[in-house]
Amino acid sequence: MSCAQCRGIEDMFGDRMARRQLRHYRRKGPGRATRVLLDAIPDASVAGGTFIDIGGGIGAIQHELIARGASRGTSADASPAYLAAARSEAEARGYADRMLYVEGDFVREANKVGAADIVTLDRVVCCYPDMPALLGASAERARRTLGLIFPRGTRFMRFGVAVVNFLQRLRRHPFRVYVHDPAEIEAVLARHGLSRSYLRDGIVWRVLVVGRDGQLLD
After folding, report:
1. What are the counts of helices (DSSP H) followed by strands (DSSP E) for the chain?
2. Fewest C-beta in 10 Å: which of 1, 27, 91, 108?
3. Mean of the per-residue pLDDT values for the chain?
4. Closest Cα to residue 192, out of 135, 107, 108, 153?
5. Coil, strand, or helix at residue 119?
6. Which residues contact 141 (CB under 8 A, 6 or more apart)?
7. Closest by alpha carbon to 138, among 106, 99, 176?
């Protein structure tokens, strides 16, 4: 990920947005697509297991997995504000000592993180220009299950993202959004021994859960 994109993430997902999203989570819980992803992660992977939440924002997935019985986890994010919000909520819930917090570009920081039973990327792939590198680093650390949410590769989505990026250029803001080919996403995961166990499309987002070949996930 370029330095410009990192700066854009820090600016776009700053303290104000982190506070707003944390307040919303406390009132209403995870968003719809995130709930779908959480429901699709097998209980067998969660109970007593470990997780890595990449680009986890204010920590919605982390808080829910711990509540479902996960033993410990890693929160990795390029936004310092989001990482601080996730940590503060974990402290309030009494489990921050069971978390590792990693700030920065996950592809560059992945060597600081060991393997885990579950790896999640909730609307993170669309913020990363080099999708194969991000998913490769993520898949290498997934012992059992990997779940992700990313934009559907429809013409409507591609047009919408092109408009967003055009407006960003007019504003001279460095953050960009990416719509990667869904078939190529699954192909990258397959090259790392992960195959589809769950797929659901919404209007905007695709929820995909994959697991190790030959492993029963439900």
Report:
1. 10, 7
2. 27
3. 90
4. 135
5. strand
6. 52, 110, 113, 114, 115, 116, 119
7. 106
Residue type, 70: A
- Tell me: the pLDDT tens digits for 79-135? 999 999 999 999 999 999 999 999 999 999 999 999 999 999 999 999 899 999 999
Q: Which two tokens stand for residue 147?
A: 């779940």
pTM above threshold 0.70: yes
Residue-by-residue DSSP string for 134-183: HHHHHHTTEEEEEEEEEE---HHHHHHHHHHHHHHHHHT---------HH
φ, ψ at 78 (rounded to 5°): -85, -10
Helix 80-93, helix 60-67: angle, nearest 10: 20
Question: Using CA atoms, how far apart are residues 75 and 82, in angstroms rounded to an integer?
Answer: 10
Side chain identity at 18, as an amino acid letter?
A: A
Measured CA to CA, the distance from residue 3 to residue 20 in angstroms comes to 26
